[in-house]
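Bench log, entry 3. Co-assembly request; chain sequences pasted below exactly as received.
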Amino acid sequence: MTAGIVYALVGAVLFGLGLYALIVRPHLLRKIIALNVMGSGTFLMLVGTGRSGVGLPPDAVPQAMVITGIVVAVSATALALTLMLRLADETGRAELPGD
Amino acid sequence: MEAPWAQALILAPLAGAMSAFLWPHRARAIGLVTMLLLVMSVAGLGIQMARFGIYRHLVGGWAPPLGIELYADGLSLLLLAATAVVGAGVSVYAADYFRGHDAAHFWPLWLFLLAALDALFLSRDIFNIYVTLELLGLAAVALTGLGGGRDALGGAMRYLLATLLGSLLYLLGVAMLYHGFGALDIGVLALRIRPTPLVWATLGLMGAGLCLKTAVFPLHFWLPPAHANAPAPVSAALSGLVVKASLYVLLRMWIDVFGTVAAGASVLFGVLGAVAVLWGSLQALRQARLKLLVAYSTVAQIGYLFLAFPLGAASGWTAWGAVAYLALSHALAKAAMFLATGNLLRFGGHDRIADLDRVAQRLPLTTWAFALAGVSIMGLPPSGGFVGKWLLLQAALAQGRWGIAAVVVVGGLLAAAYVFRVLGHTFTQAPVPHEARPVPAHMQWAALLLAGGAVLLGFIAPFVLSMLRIGHPFAMWEAGS
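Structure output for the full assembly:
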């Protein structure tokens, strides 16, 4: 078993954990963290499953995708946190209304 | 010699968005000028493609698999045109709808949304599509929450969580496709794809992610609260354009990558589509608020687009032509319907269907817009919706798929029921009269012209279908039909 497969498996487990929390936890901050955990899981899988072999240079494409993905995740998290704060100001609770 | 129309389609709204952000007092003027540029660029691209066929541009001069390519065939062109036309209608409407502080917030986000849509329709690289999907989602969510207040913010938050989950599922699919076939370009993937278990897992992930973003039953839970609580021009753009973007990605991936190696999954798409048509229409019938009715109607109309998937294998061109036509006419009609609803909301201060209070006499242009859009949504001739449903029925009957044909017909009847339910109330007097506020003429004409466009699509079907054929987007499916 190569290191890449270990990373990919850990990534898959993180994705699953995050998905579980996203669905089950009502608090929005937990949902946002869950999405970030899922994102990290995806990035680990991207890096872990990249095409590489012994003696070959590491595959740059997944690394480039992960860096772009991190930028996207940071922006999405910022927007999510802002929305959460506005919602908490408005309703007094950091949860989705009507749940 | 090719002019850089496609680059302008992406760069103009990006530059416009940043300028509108930097000069908030000029945001409205910047937005309208950018919109004019977009319409001209799409027209230019269309004329160029009618002469020379497929448009390709290697960004930075690097060819795939290393570089990223801008690519437009007939399908991309039609969706770009729909974006420009609906975008123009929404912009004219929004110029009167948003004033002062709100306008300064609206225009940068709206132009970002247009840039993301255009970039998405011009992308052929699955990771690039991921980035554009995220840009689109973030801009759309921010616009949804623009009005503030508990319902709008709650709708926006739910939308954000759904769209981020959808993107992550899609990205996981991208990782697996790259692992399996070492490519991100759809054209290269189409050549390398083989029916392996990995492809099924990838289709499951990408399909689930994109269905969530497109709001197909039973993943539509986020759509009604988001679309019904956003400001009117935003609702129009969300229902008209934004859900089409993820549908376009799914369609492209299906046609070029998955469809040939995982044909069995099309049955599932068809079933979901059929349930969506019936469930969405019945929910629309039950709503007391007009905006929710129109939002549930979107859930139903999205269902139609998925009915074509099981038909694609045997009658490729007819089925995919039906999808393109339905998507196009729904974009125009639904945008018009949401804009008309926004007018009614501003006029009476509420959108309770039972209390519409003789708006047919007092707001005739808007009522006309709603009725014309309804004609296309119901699929009555000679509208664009009719052509789309006709093609769909033709494909279903040619294959003896009576179930699909029945869903198309019943869905049309249910649509007629909910549209006429609204129109009926526009003629009656409400028990409690409301004070009426004036509605600017531009806002009424924007809705009416978009609705007229949806009907006009029924008259220019041969032209539109010939544009769709540019570059043969469905070539792999046309052998049998």
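The first helix of chain A runs from residue 3 to 24. Chain A touches chain B through 33 residues (CB under 8 Å).
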